[in-house]
Structures are given as C-alpha cells and as structure tokens.
Amino acid sequence: MKVQKQKWFLALCxxxxxxxxxxxxxxxTEEEGSSDIKFLSLLTGGTQxxxxxxxxxxxxxxxxxxxxxxxxxxxxxxxxxxxxxQKDEGEIIFVQTDIxxxxxxxxxxxxxxxxxxxxxxIGALYPETVQLVALADSGIASFEDLKxxxxxxxxxxxxxxxxxxxxxxxxxxxxxDIQAQNLDFGESTEGIQSxxxxxxxxxxxxxxxxxxxxxATEDVVVxxxxxxxxxxxxxxxxxxxxxxxxxxxxxxxEDVPAxxxxxxxxxxxxxxxxxxxxxxxxxxxNAGEIQHAKGEFIKAETALxxxxxxxxxxxxxxxxxx
Length: 322
Prior knowledge:
Structural class: alpha/beta
Radius of gyration: 25 Å
CATH architecture of the largest domain: 3-Layer(aba) Sandwich
Number of strands: 10
Order of helices and strands: HEHEHEHEEHEHEHEHEEHH
CATH superfamily of the largest domain: Periplasmic binding protein-like II
Oligomer: single chain
Helix content: 25-40%
Distance between the termini: 65 Å
Shape: globular
C-alpha cells in the first residue's frame, strides 16, 4: 500500500510541476511583447528634408520610451520607403498620405507592382507643403513660366514627382513641357544656386532645410498656387488641402498660397500590437518635446485626420485611450 501511495504522490507532483512550467511559459510569452524586438529602423528621407530632421527625434523618443534601439535612416522618402518596408529593410517609415493611398490601391507608381495590402498607419504628423522654389531674379512667377525651363521634379515614383505632375496638369502643362530633372532636395537647391536648373518642386514641411540654405545666399521665391487652381486640384485629388507659407519664411515678404498633403508614419500590419502601441505613445505622448517647427502639428487628437488607409490596431488602441 505504501508503494502505491508513493507512486501516486510522485505522479501528482510531476503533474503539478508540468502545470507550473506551462504557466511559466505562458507568462513569459505574455511579458515578452516588445522585448522580442531589439532594434528598429525608421526610414526617413534625404538629409536636407523634414523627414530626416524629425526622424532623429522620433528615434530617440522610441528608444527612450520603449527600450528598443531605434535609428533614423537616410532614404529616398515616401514611395521608396514603402518598397523598402515590403522588403523588410525597415520597420517604420515616413510617407506622404497620398503615396500611402496609392500603395494600398496599386495605383500610379505602384501600378506595376500591385497593391500593398499590409501597409497600415501609425498616425498623421503635419502638412507637407508642395513648394515650387526659384530665385527672385529667375523671371519665374507662375506655373506657366515653367514652360521650357529646367525644373527638378524629384525622383520618378517619388511623392514629389507625383505632386509636380498633378500641379502641372492643373495648370495645363505636362512633364513634356519642361526639362524635367530628377534631383533630391539638396541637389535641387544647389542646382538652382549654380544656375544648372531654374526651379524645383520640393514637397516637405516648411521651413525646409535645403530651401533655408539656399535663402542664406540668394533671394528666394515660392510660386503661388491660385485659389481656383488649388480648388481644381482638390476636386480631382481630394487628399490635397489648401495651405499657406507665411511671410518671413525663407525671407518672403508676404504670405504665399500653396497646397499640401500630409506626412504620416506607417508600418506593416504584422508588427506586434504592443510594439505599435508603444511607438505611438512614445511619439504622440511626448510631442511637446519635439523642437522642430512641425512639432506643433503632431497631436493625438488630429493623428487620424486625412489618413486614407487602415490604422494599426496598436496605434488605434492608443488613440482610443486619449
């Protein structure tokens, strides 16, 4: 009888130990979450643009708040960032809201590759103004003055290129009416300064570092978008909004009417929910610490405005709590 009781007792102990091990395993799984991810890459844009300037701050906030080492990487911006995200060459991207929409719909620059089905938003950030920049003595005062001129329109497939193409269209022009140059922001302003090009489209939050650098040595103008043309653009492409570049920016002596899209952050749908939540909280919960001029636009209450694509559940959870 004693032997049987001992066997029964040992079996009971073994069962209890297995149960404890299982509980321990479950607890570990529940607690790991973001700790599974040690590094994150945040894909920004060129060094002369707003994405890169803000990206360093965002990377620091994410690193400090989540414990996940995050680095801001130089890139070719919006559409290139979407492509890189699909290739797992980064985990978080800056992207224009219009480009994100094209990606999920498989339109324009994504027509050949097809719709990107797992691209989701973290949140909107700030208006990205489409700026047509030239020198004050260039004789370029309207879009019509671009005909036959050497104009930087950004890389083919970029957000800037799409914006340039659509604004030209509204003004009765096409890429064939100009001598299109595919330059980044820094190359564009350097080209204007050296006389190699006459004007440049630059889609970025103002003040843009590249344009500020040009204004430091030259008198700059930003070509205005007339109210009727802005409305025609918005009627056809509703992700645009009316914007104004205020007097004093780049030494401008009066406000310049313009149009803008939105900058946003996006990730893959498969990013763990807790990680997406922590990223969102790190940025929008610490927006007051962002020193860049565009920091004032980064608010939880407006983060879902104008998105146009699905929002990651982790980000949605954060915004729902606010």
